[in-house]
Automatic annotation (TrEMBL):
Subunit organization: Monomer.
UniProt cross-references to Gene3D superfamilies, sorted A to Z: 1.10.1040.50, 2-enoyl-CoA Hydratase, Chain A, domain 1 (3.90.226.10), NAD(P)-binding Rossmann-like Domain (3.40.50.720)
Similarity comment text for this entry: Belongs to the enoyl-CoA hydratase/isomerase family.
PROSITE patterns the record matches: ENOYL_COA_HYDRATASE
Keywords from the UniProt entry: Fatty acid metabolism, Isomerase, Lipid degradation, Lipid metabolism, Lyase, Multifunctional enzyme, NAD, Oxidoreductase, Peroxisome
3-hydroxyacyl-CoA dehydrogenase NAD binding domain location: 303-478
Source domain of life: Bacteria
Source lineage: Bacteria, Bacillati, Actinomycetota, Actinomycetes, Micrococcales
Ranges where the 3-hydroxyacyl-CoA dehydrogenase C-terminal domain occurs: 483-567, 603-686
CDD domains named among the record's database cross-references: crotonase-like (cd06558)
Species name: Brevibacterium pityocampae
Biochemical pathway: Lipid metabolism; fatty acid beta-oxidation
Subcellular localization(s) per the UniProt record: Peroxisome
InterPro entries tied to this protein: 3-OHacyl-CoA_DH_NAD-bd, 3HC_DH_C, 6-PGluconate_DH-like_C_sf, ClpP/crotonase-like_dom_sf, Enoyl-CoA_hyd/isom_CS, Enoyl-CoA_hydra/iso, NAD(P)-bd_dom_sf
Name recorded for this polypeptide: 3-hydroxyacyl-CoA dehydrogenase NAD-binding domain-containing protein
Length: 692
């Protein structure tokens, strides 16, 4: 056994060289890994005792890609041939032995081997698109030569992890072997290759698949048309299509030049910087500084939900999807039946799209039990209350649950902003009370705001943060304050958009400014979708605001066919002259002469208060870190991931610029724009907002 460098070792076993890479956590292609591979392959090729080479990795996975943390930094210039060129020019057969997830540069390295042997549980993929990149190490040129253009486009545009059994259909993998015998099977495979002799075949020299695509020019046009909506705002997908077109129409080396050029453009783009930032932000959000990874967790093998409405039903589906039995409790039989019916309809709709089988529908419905009494929750490990937003109602429910539920059961509330400390105070177990704020539709939206109350224990926090991932959610820990983090920031935007309405902007002007930035909808489209009457009470309404007047006119949003917009039978929205008139009347009443407001000013005045509120939230310790706020906005509010999130975007504007513009608006509009002291500190120290 020879130590090539700190992460690569070389052993020779009867003529077969085994290069082992061991660079936790995922054998990413850091500078040290690449150097070790270059030296290792060179040593094996130069050694006359070696007839073939096996590349294998230690730890949890084969190479999972380039080291994302090294992008953007000053990369050490590659001098001499890189490991892929050495592999490409090897006179001796190379076999890559794949386990875990061979992704991005990892799969690209394996495609430079002559053969690939994979453990049956392994997956392969080219997920660079999620980083705003394209496979920049030959993947856009080699993969189509094995799979053909159409399959290659699917793999690279979705970035999905492909099971090796499927990959083997295209020769991306040559042999699938049992997980436990990967090493010896790969060595045996190499021996057979040596014994059989014959010409070494390189993926880059394959032409049959791409030649067949040369007669289908419509393939790329159709692909672009089909995915246009999904590509909106992203640069990488189009670049990937151009690379695959090059793979079909150009010799390998020329196609590789196209790939290098487009990769260089993407890696220096703000979109990719945002998406690479987001990659680490999402993983950081799972970490709670004072709750260590090894904090004991409470087993959650059964769950109770109070309320079978839209939220309760959606929440129940998350647990059934993860195979966890759920008891969902309603007060009235009709409400319970209706709720269970909606759940079944949702599953049947998913099945009709082929995403689950009808057997899975029955299996999941079988995990959901309806009940009319909270007494049925006596033995569950976790209860999530999901009834309407009235503190008295929640308090009475928690008082009952505290009596009924077994000791140690976690009592969670799905409240979107009420004071959880107040709720916890009615129980004898405040340490077991926590917020689990799901976003509607709860069975679809990825974000879960986990709300830490004053007495919530570390075990309960650790349990719920881990449980979130188990049910396919992305958790972010937040503190108790009105609206927690996501909605509290949204309130700041709402306040400013109402001021803009009075000054001369119309709801559609504001929504357009926000959607042109890349969000799926603006504040007024969101209100119409959610319903203008959330929290509105007819008996108290007195025409004091545009919203009250609209609700009093029964214009409560999409569900009534009219709100700020008018809706046709397909819910297509058009700006409403009725809403415009109401706004104009309010302006007249205030004696305001409306003015034309530019899209740029509208967007700036909607966004600066969001950034400032995020900084206040950090000052108050209601979010653990700035990047958690971005994870919340990307996953709960549709902030485009290629923009990173409000805090990352603030750094793209520059902290100093943000401070200066807040001061400018503070002059005009007062304290709503008073810069947070934390922002002034960041600017004084020359720091970055997203690194707080
Ligand atoms: N670079 C650096 N660190 C990485 C990493 C990577 N590629 N992948 C994972 N990590 C870290 C991660 O931050 C975390 O660190 C730990 O590993 C475990 O990750 C030239 C340009 C492999 C499926 O996009 O999809 O190749 O928090 O929590 O859920 O064409 O990580 O423990 O300190 O996610 O089991 C392409 C990205 C790169 C794969 C494992 N490759 N990684 O998931 O663990 S670009 C990718 C993943 C590229 C080439 C291009 C997942 C995983 P910490 P984890 P997991």
């Amino acid at each position: 056994m020879k130590q090539i460098n700190e992460v690569v070792t070389l052993s020779i076993e009867d003529g077969i060289a085994v290069l082992t890479l061991d660079s936790p956590p995922v054998n990413a292609l850091s500078a040290a890994v690449r150097a070790g591979l270059q030296q290792g392959f060179t040593a094996a090729i130069d050694d006359d005792a070696v007839q073939a080479i096996v590349l294998i990795c230690a730890g949890r996975t084969f190479i999972a890609g380039a080291d994302i943390s090294e992008f953007g930094g000053d990369k050490t210039e590659q001098t001499g041939p890189d490991e892929r060129e050495i592999m490409d020019n090897s006179p001796k057969p190379i076999v890559a032995a794949i386990h875990g997830t061979a992704l991005g540069g990892g799969l690209e390295t394996a495609l430079c081997a002559h053969y690939r042997v994979a453990a049956q549980s392994a997956k392969v993929g080219l997920p660079e698109v999620h980083l705003g990149l394209l496979p920049g190490a030959g993947g856009t040129q080699r993969l189509p030569r094995l799979t053909g253009a159409e399959v290659a486009l699917d793999w690279m545009i979705t970035g999905r992890h492909v099971p090796v059994a499927e990959a083997a259909e295209y020769g991306v993998v040559d042999e699938v072997v049992p997980d436990e015998s990967l090493r010896e099977d790969a060595i045996a495979f190499a021996r057979r290759v040596v014994a059989e002799g014959g010409e070494l075949r390189r993926v880059r020299d394959r032409d049959d698949k791409v030649a067949a695509d040369r007669d289908k020019p419509e393939l790329f046009a159709d692909f672009r048309k089909k995915h246009a909506r999904k590509f909106r705002g992203f640069k990488a997908p189009e670049a990937i299509v151009q690379c695959v077109e090059a793979a079909v129409n150009l010799p390998y080396d020329e196609g590789r030049e196209v790939e290098k050029r487009l990769f260089a453009e993407l890696v220096s783009s703000p979109e990719s910087a945002a998406q690479r930032y987001y990659f680490f932000a999402e993983r950081a959000a799972a970490k709670v500084p004072d709750v260590p990874r090894d904090t004991p967790r409470i087993p959650v093998e059964s769950v109770g939900i109070i309320g079978a409405g839209t939220m309760g039903g959606g929440i129940a589906m998350n647990f059934a999807n993860a195979g966890i039995p759920v008891t969902i409790v309603e007060q009235q039989p009709e409400a319970l039946e209706r709720g269970l019916g909606v759940i079944r309809k949702n599953y049947e709709r998913t099945a009709s799209k082929g995403r689950i089988t009808s057997a899975q529908v029955e299996e999941r419905m079988g995990l959901i039990t309806g009940s009319l009494t909270k007494d049925d929750l006596a033995s569950v490990d976790l209860v999530i209350e999901a009834v309407f937003e009235l503190m008295d109602v929640k308090k009475s429910i928690f008082t009952e649950l505290d009596e009924i539920c077994k000791p140690g059961a976690i009592l969670a509330t799905n409240t979107s902003g009420l004071d959880i400390d107040e709720i916890a105070a009615v129980t004898e177990r405040p340490e077991a009370v926590i917020g689990m704020h799901f976003f509607s539709p709860a069975n679809v939206m990825k974000l879960l705001e986990v709300v830490r109350a004053d007495h919530t224990s570390k075990e309960v926090i650790a349990t719920v943060m881990a449980l979130a991932k188990k049910i396919g959610k992305i958790p972010a820990l937040v503190g108790v304050c009105p609206g927690f983090v996501g909605n509290r920031i949204l309130y700041a935007r709402r306040r400013e958009s109402e001021r803009l309405l009075m000054e001369g902007a119309m709801p559609w002007d504001i929504d357009t400014a926000v959607t042109n930035f890349g969000l799926p909808m603006g504040p007024y489209q969101m209100s119409d979708l959610a319903g203008l009457d959330i929290g509105w009470r007819k008996e108290e309404s007195a025409g004091r605001t545009v919203r009250e007047v609209l609700c009093e006119m029964d214009r409560r949003g999409q569900k009534t066919g009219a709100g700020y917009y008018d809706y046709d039978e397909n819910r297509k929205a058009t700006p409403s002259p009725v809403a415009a008139k109401i706004i104009e009347d309010f302006r007249a009443k205030e004696g305001v002469a409306p003015r034309e407001i530019s899209e740029e000013e509208i967007f700036e005045r909607c966004t600066l208060p969001m950034i400032n509120e995020g900084l206040h939230i950090l000052e108050e310790g209601k979010a653990v870190r700035a990047s958690d706020i971005d994870v919340i906005y990307v996953n709960g509010y549709g902030w485009p991931v290629y923009r990173g999130g409000p805090m990352f975007y603030a750094d793209q504007l520059g902290a100093e610029h943000v401070l200066e513009r807040l001061r400018f608006y503070e002059e005009k509009y007062g304290s709503d724009f008073t810069p947070s002291p934390l922002l002034e500190k960041v600017v004084a120290e020359g720091g970055r907002i997203s690194e707080l």
